[in-house]
Design brief:
The complex is a heterodimer of chains A (367) and B (287). By secondary structure, chain A is α+β, with helices and mostly antiparallel strands. Chain A contains 9 helices and 22 strands. In chain A, strands 6-7-8-3-9-10 form a 6-stranded mixed sheet, with helices on both faces. A 5-stranded antiparallel sheet of chain A has the order 14-11-12-13-16, with no helix packed on it. In chain A, a hairpin with a 2-residue loop joins β11 (244-251) and β12 (254-257). Chain A is elongated and about 80 Å long. With 287 residues, chain B is mainly α. Chain B has helices at residues 2-10, 21-46, 52-59, 62-95, 101-107, 110-113, 116-127, 132-137, 148-173, 177-184, 189-217, 221-227, 237-246, 250-282. In chain B, α4 (62-95) runs parallel beside α9, α9 (148-173) packs across α11 (189-217) and α11 packs antiparallel against α14. Chain B is globular, with a radius of gyration of 25 Å. Classes of the chains: A alpha+beta (367), B mainly alpha (287).
Chain lengths: 367, 287
């Protein structure tokens, strides 16, 4: 079921949690709401669920498909909601937790207890917990509890599933496993899902489209691929990965910052460049158009790459460069070694709302 | 070198990591003995001259038995009233924000702070046929002073903090996600309260009500002024003890007191056992 949000805004007292937001979610999509804490992502999710009411406005609308649910109470919206801390009913067994939604249906719609039993067992089968049906929540691990809470949310066959930082309280390995499993479940059952996360990796890995939010505004809505390749503004760029900063004064096509110099194609004046760690090369000698001396602070091999931390007087914060193992060996890098950073490409987000620029430096074979 | 190694070995590993176990437990036990156990032993000691049949005779004297009925009946009604209104009070104090909330919260402890005799005199004046409330109620045929209604009222007054103060912290710890989860699953407010919130509050509510009941069994000051103290009708057990004492019948007083004591202890023990079983389940035991 598609979800249409029009002019959703929310104030808590005097502070504005959401500035007017419009968002279209297509039927069957898996959408990630991504942002730092305080960006309004959870508020937006809770408004979709009906756990929070948006501010009154004549244009304010929440539509599920054709159904206007703006004034509909959460219990009648027919959504499934999964809480960060599971919110299981601790005094009920796993079975009773999952059965809850079915047992509180009005008598006329309520299935017989045999039907409820088979439906619940089917759900528990799906989350691979049927052998724990008689246990109490406190006897389960975090990952198992979250699976129970998912089964509980799906018991009434909702067409919209909302998840508030569903994996936030779990450890890395379980989180990875549950993520894959949620994706699988989503594809199999075909509901529309919206989940909240502050973990960019999770958002990029799991979502069909990601909604990046900050300060109660939507910064960008795109597929993970587009988002990473073409961030619309500086916030999105910085939020989606590690960033190195180079700030200096440009004159006649050369940016100078302390004893660092880089040929750039920018207007004169104060400018700031942003570089991803994989866009920074490390070389033993400077080049004509790039003179960025630095010393190696640390060398950490992580998986397929080597993370090198660089520092210099002209940097406001140390830079991070990722190299292949091969390059690192060829340079025989050591702590304290004097090297030169060579930007392969860099990004530039002017403060004014003009088009962001990305420039690729002509590749030169470095010694 | 050798010394440095032998030093840690020389000290015997201690069984308790937290320091001061022996000292703190010792002091606590001494205190409990002096303040609680010694008077109780004295009470039981008073009974040593009695034979079993004499003891039985004293505690089953018709006037005394009538006082048991009055006391237990009054305490039961008071506990029920407190269970309902105490729960409501705790709910209001935890779940909502309103001006004067702090004041109302502080007011809840007043029955603890007020001398019970003061409460008793106030209630008696208020509900006597010339008092504010009595003037209103008596024309309607509702007699409060000098009836069991008055007794229950006085008992309810002195014991309401027990319910409020036991339920309140549990309610505060209850995450609001629990009822949000219930509502997102389609539960009506009443159903969500009955099936999701009440089971969590149940142990605290029963404990609080039980404490209130036990407290009411022993209440004296607040009740005697409003009860009227008519033999066989509105005499409470504590008053019977008092009467015996005034007649210098220490043994008789002790015998009746021992009945109250035993009942209270058994009730408290039962509440604790029951609560332990219930709470184990919430925390993952087999319960």
């Amino acid at each position: 079921m598609s979800i249409h949000l029009r002019h959703i805004q929310k104030h808590f007292g005097r502070s504005q949690a959401l500035s007017p937001i419009d968002l279209e979610i297509r039927s069957g999509e898996l959408i990630g709401l991504l942002g730092p804490s305080g960006s309004g992502k959870t508020t937006l999710l809770r408004i979709i669920a009906g756990l929070e009411t948006p501010d009154d406005h004549r244009d304010c609308r929440i539509l599920f498909g054709e159904r206007d649910v703006t004034q509909v109470h959460v219990r009648d919206r027919r959504i499934g909601f999964v809480f960060q801390h599971y919110a299981l009913f601790r005094h009920m067994s796993v079975f009773d937790n999952v059965a809850f939604g079915l047992t509180v249906l009005p008598r006329a719609e309520r299935p017989s207890s045999a039907e409820i039993r088979s439906r619940v067992m089917q759900l528990l089968e799906m989350v691979q917990l049927s052998h724990l049906a008689e246990r109490f929540p406190a006897q389960l691990s975090g990952g198992q509890q979250q699976r129970v809470s998912l089964a509980r949310a799906l018991a009434l066959k909702p067409e919209v599933l909302l998840l508030d930082e569903p994996f936030g309280a779990l450890d890395a390995k379980v989180r990875q496993e549950l993520r894959r499993w949620l994706r699988h479940l989503h594809d199999e059952l075909g509901f529309t899902s919206v989940f909240v996360t502050h973990d960019q990796e999770e958002a990029l890995e799991l979502s069909d489209r990601v909604v990046v939010m900050s300060n109660g505004r939507i910064e960008q809505v795109d597929t993970p691929d587009t988002l990473y390749r073409a961030p619309r503004n500086r916030f999105v760029f910085e939020f989606l990965g590690d960033v190195n900063h180079l700030e200096g004064v440009v004159q006649d096509g050369v940016l100078t910052c302390g004893d660092a110099r880089l040929a750039v194609d920018l207007e004169d004046g104060r400018q700031e460049l942003l570089l991803r760690p994989h866009e920074v090369q490390v070389a033993l000698q400077a080049q004509a158009d790039a003179h960025l001396p630095a010393s190696v602070m640390s060398i950490v091999p992580v998986g397929a790459e080597v993370r090198v931390e660089l520092s210099a007087d002209w940097m406001s914060e140390p830079w991070m460069a990722t190299l292949s193992h091969q390059d690192a060996e060829r340079l025989s890098l050591k702590r304290g070694m004097r090297v030169h950073a060579l930007p392969r490409r860099w990004h530039h987000y002017p403060d004014a709302q003009e088009a962001p620029g990305t420039q690729v430096r002509p590749q030169q074979v470095s010694a | 070198m050798l010394k440095a190694i032998s030093l840690p070995l020389a000290r015997k590993a201690r069984r308790h990591v937290l320091p001061g176990f022996g000292l703190s437990l010792g002091i606590s036990l001494t205190f409990v003995s002096l303040v609680l156990l010694l008077p109780l032993t004295g009470l039981v000691g008073q009974l040593k001259g009695l034979s079993l049949s004499e003891y039985w005779f004293i505690i089953t004297e018709p006037r005394v038995v009538a006082s048991y009925v009055t006391t237990i009946g009054g305490a039961f009604v008071a506990a029920l009233i407190n269970a309902v209104f105490g729960l409501l009070m705790a709910w209001v104090l935890v779940r909502y924000d309103f001006p004067g909330k702090r004041l109302l919260d502080a007011l809840m402890d007043l029955p603890f702070a007020l001398p019970t005799a003061v409460a008793g005199i106030t209630l008696a004046t208020l509900y006597s046929s010339k008092g504010w409330m009595g003037q209103l109620l008596e024309p309607l045929g509702w007699q409060v002073s000098y009836t069991w209604v008055g007794i229950a009222l006085a008992m309810a007054f002195t014991s309401i903090p027990f319910v409020v103060r036991t339920v309140q912290p549990v309610l505060e710890d209850l995450p609001s996600e629990i009822d949000e989860a219930a509502m997102s699953l389609g539960a009506r407010d009443g159903v969500a309260f009955r099936r999701v919130i009440l089971p969590h509050l149940w142990p605290a509510l029963v404990t609080g009500t039980g404490l209130a009941f036990v407290r009411s069994l022993g209440e004296f000051g607040a009740v005697i002024f409003i009860a009227g103290n008519m033999p066989y009708e509105t005499e409470i057990t504590s008053l019977m003890i008092f009467v015996k004492l005034q007649e210098y019948d220490y043994v008789g007083a002790s015998a009746i007191a021992s009945v109250v004591l035993l009942t209270s202890l058994l009730l408290l023990l039962a509440i604790n056992l029951w609560q332990g079983r219930f709470i184990r389940r919430l925390h993952g035991g087999r319960g």
